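Session log. Operator J.P. requested a structure for one protein chain; no other inputs attached. Running the standard single-chain path with token output.
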Amino acid sequence: MRYATVFYSSDNLVIENLNLGSLKTVGESGLSACFAESFLITGDLNLSSLETIGDFGLEYAFGDTRISSANLYSLKTIGKEGLAECFAYNSNIKSIYFNSLNANSFGGYTNQFNNMLKGCKNVTVHFPVGLDATIGNWSDVLAGFGGTNTTILYDL
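Structure written below.
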């Protein structure tokens, strides 16, 4: 199975449109910092089949990359700080989609998104309609996940 479309240039290996679409579970610290500071990862991130992220599972996993959008359509369960600083300092990220989260997705913990967008600007985060009643008052959500000019929509 191919997970990424790879392009070569004279100096660098570039991974464009990282496709992890078959991945269903990331365990505790499973991909923590895995792709961090890989400035040549660009384009879309496909995690469309990912259903569960364990504690710290994607912590800083895609920080300092150049991913422009992230598809987390099937995500249903997020462990403690599962997405903490996941996209931190990414200058290209513009949209993130969480289609399947619900009121039971968080296990009573309220800091799964801790600084997920730290250092990012002008990102739109899409959540399912009605989820605002569950996460709308969480301080990290209201603060834009640590980013600036973050738009939070409950439109899926």
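Operator note: Residues 1-156 form one domain.
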